[in-house]
User: Fold this.
Amino acid sequence: MFGIDAADLVLILVLAVVLFGPERLPEYSRKLARIFVYLRGIANNAKGTLREELGPEYADLELKDLHPKAFVAKHMREEIATIEETQRELREAAESLKLASKEVEGATKSSMTDAKTALKQDELPSPAAEEELALAAPSHSPYDPEAT
Assistant:
């Protein structure tokens, strides 16, 4: 109610009793209630007049909808829903990428293990392979540094 919490309301009541006194407080509270009823009637008449002048196409018009925050929220719901759908799709894509990266990581580890075992088997050359390596290696011609 008007942004007044219980503590503020009690403070206002205490101030009213002190300022007006307990004798005149009921009289002033009745006057204040009549003022609120009068103002509410003016507001309702203004809403009714506005609806009559705008016509039937604005029959569902609510003044609450004309508040800037409510107006923006009403017109942005579709865009917000689209953004939320995109976020959901991105989360799903991220999860699928995580699963794919785990699969690739597992395949890479198994390939590394296979390659390491293959290298260990190839590290022990046979004597025939050593002779072939020796023959295939380029032989150096004798070099005489004083010959030039």
Q: What stands out?
A: The radius of gyration is 45 Å. The helical segments are 6-54, 68-122, 127-136. The mean pLDDT is 81. The chain has three helices and no strands.
